[in-house]
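[audit] Reproducing an earlier prediction to check determinism. Same input, same settings, fresh worker. If the tokens differ from the archived copy the diff job will pick it up downstream; this log only records the rerun itself.
[audit] input (197 residues):
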Amino acid sequence: MTNERRARLLSVIAKRQFDLAIVLENVFDPHNVSAVMRSCDAVGVQDIYILNTKIPRHRKWGFRSGASAAKWLSIHQFDNVEACFAALRTRYKKIFTTHLNQEAVELHEIDFTERVAMVFGNEHAGVSDEARALADGNFHIPQVGIIKSLNISVACAVTLYEAYRQKSIAGHYLPTEADSPLQRALKNQWGVDTNGI
């Protein structure tokens, strides 16, 4: 590994946000899954949870350029809603689902400086009743058009960049003096040693 490559990977690891996760529940189109992975990588989100209770596990993640993002992410696959949420509860303080109802808060009202997991549902049916019942609340993305929905990958990108905005203002992307255990684990996983820096 060249020094330039090592420096680039170390810079990426330093900005990874281990307190934010995306959950995709029964998202059918692998191209949508792949697009979400690219957005996660772009804003430094390391963990993505794939929850498939009604569709088979994906064998691949869609178009080639998006699929390349998968190797840099920690992908957790589940086929049981309760098991997935139990795993999420060990790491995240709040879990929100995308669902438009009277109790749903606007995206900008969510505090992304906390440990948060965001659940996005199936392209047609949305998030399941079971997942909504286990979540802490619902959110929606404000819109003023006729059609009150966005493509799943677009909705996720909008959400991630609101999180990026809040976390940037709060200084979450600034370098720290010491690595966290999760950063050290990622260095081992990516085969990055710091001897050459």
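[audit] rerun output stored. Observation attached for the diff report: Residues 152-169 form the longest helix (18 residues).
[audit] end
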